[in-house]
Write a structure and sequence with these properties.
Elements lengths: L5 H10 L29 E8 L6 H14 L3 E8 L4 H11 L5 E5 H8 L7 H4 L9 H5 L13 E7 L1 E5 H6 L11 H15 L10 H4 L2 H5 L17 H15 L14 H6 L5 E2 L3 H10 L1 H4 L2 E5 L10 E8 L6 H11 L2 H10 L3 E2 L2 H4 L13 H13 L14 H15 L5 H21 L1
Parallel strand pairs: 1-2, 1-3
Antiparallel strand pairs: 3-8, 4-8, 4-9, 5-6, 5-7
Length: about 450
């Protein structure tokens, strides 16, 4: 799903969501031109470790992890730098161009692809082939690249899955069974129509937010976003047109707050005020509602995410990449594995609403405990963890879907939803605009 979707917003509470604005920045020189270092069998040397805005909230935790690593490997030393969210992208790109990337660097799924595709990151599957079995498949697979075979360019760190959150009381008022939430995009729209018909304008079903819903909804419906060669957009299909037509119809019927189509409303406030049925699809949101709107929290229910044709969900993962030409490959790789091992990821998850990508960590009873089955936050943690065990990737934003592409697509879609143009024309024009941007980026 796109950078503004609820899953990504959940992770952004930790890292402030600094994502690369384009997948085609001109990166040359530096690590991309260097020979990849190999392991020596000795964990020695001083390495740099960069994180994204974890200080001061998680200073004690990160330092605890570093201290334990240095005790285990006394010949290694870790210098930790934490970068503010503002300007992180620019700094990352500048460092890559200058050959000054840290030895171990915190990357999102977006920034990982940008650097890995240009040869800036080490192939961790080559460095440590046995590592694949230590992580949940959906997380490990996130850090492969099309056309690069089984190569993996980062160790998965913490992850966040999609879940479904909804107001039980409003569900019942619409004549829907809270024990039977929607499971597909199409069924979600069906439920929204029923909610709009019964609400009398007092509340809505969901936020319009097409930038947050795309391309995730299309992927879940089986719309092919890119060609097989990943070199052009191909979403101009009957399924995509049907999605726009349905959104237009639901918008006209009041299933979405009118203002949510053109601007980003505070969904926490609307949900917390009982004005919207479906909340953001993230466990972190449930915690926020518990703290800020306890009366609505008591009515909140959680379920597995709305899925796609293959039964998959999208997950959003942070990772640790290894600079390809690091002078201390063993230390960098062992440290990345240390940070992402089961016990360390579980400890991190106890301090923040995140999940381990490490299979051993995800198996910890902390993530399966449903308590008395009535507390939404506890259930959200268990539901999210269960989904992560088998999560696959049919709803994750491809790197080619940049912010600019998303904006171009949304402009056309918005016109159709408000009746300004035909849905089929909107999708056609959106694909044309997206491909123009993709071509221009490739020529830079």
């Amino acid at each position: 799903m796109t950078r503004s979707n609820p899953t990504r917003i959940a992770v952004a509470t930790l890292v402030t969501g600094a994502l690369l604005s384009t997948a085609a920045c001109g990166l040359s020189g530096g690590a991309g031109d260097a020979k990849e270092a190999e392991k020596t069998g000795r964990v020695t040397g001083e390495i740099t470790f960069r994180t994204l805005q974890l200080k001061p909230t998680f200073t004690a935790y990160v330092q605890w992890v570093i201290d334990a690593f240095e005790r285990k490997y006394p010949e290694a030393k870790v210098t930790w730098e934490d970068v503010p969210g503002d300007g992180y992208n620019e700094k990352l790109v500048a460092d890559a161009q200058a050959g000054a990337l840290p030895d171990v660097v915190n990357l999102s799924t977006d920034s990982f692809q940008l650097l890995a595709d240009r040869g800036m990151l080490a192939d961790v599957a080559k460095l440590d082939g046995a590592a694949a079995g230590e992580y949940v498949p959906g997380a490990w697979e996130q850090f492969k690249l099309p056309g690069k075979g089984d190569s993996v360019y980062a160790y998965p760190w913490y992850v966040t899955p999609e879940i479904l959150t909804y107001n039980r009381e409003l569900f019942e008022k619409a004549g829907l069974d809270p024990a039977k939430p929607p499971t597909s995009v199409e069924q979600f729209f069906d439920y929204a129509e029923k909610i709009a018909a019964s609400s009398g304008g007092q509340y809505s079903a969901f936020m319009a937010d097409p930038k947050g819903r795309l391309p995730g909804d299309w992927q879940k419906m089986g719309v092919p976003i890119l060609s097989e060669k990943q070199d052009r957009f191909t979403f101009d299909t009957d399924q995509a047109v049907a999605w726009v037509e349905r959104m237009k119809d639901l918008y006209a019927k009041g299933a979405m707050p009118k203002e949510s189509l053109l601007k980003s409303d505070d969904i926490n406030q609307l949900y917390g005020g009982g004005k919207i049925v479906f909340g953001p699809g993230s466990p972190g949101f449930v915690k926020d509602i518990k703290q800020n709107a306890p009366q609505v929290y008591a009515k909140t229910r959680v379920a597995g995410a709305v899925t796609g044709k293959l039964g998959h969900i999208g997950i959003y993962a942070q990772s640790l990449g290894i600079r390809k030409d690091t002078k201390h490959t063993d230390a960098a790789a062992e440290f990345a594995k240390w940070v992402t091992n089961g016990p360390n990821q579980v400890e991190f998850s106890r301090k923040a609403t995140i999940y381990p990508s490490n299979a051993q960590g995800l198996a910890d009873p902390f993530f399966s405990d449903q308590g008395d089955g009535k507390d939404a936050e506890t259930l959200a943690r268990a539901v999210g963890a269960e989904q992560l065990k088998t999560a696959a990737l049919d709803a994750n934003t491809p790197v080619q879907w940049t912010n600019q592409v998303g904006d171009a697509v949304v402009r056309e879609v918005q016109k159709a939803i408000t009746g300004g143009q035909d849905p089929r024309t909107a999708v056609k024009k959106a694909e044309e605009a997206a491909n123009k941007l993709l071509t221009a980026a490739a020529e830079k």
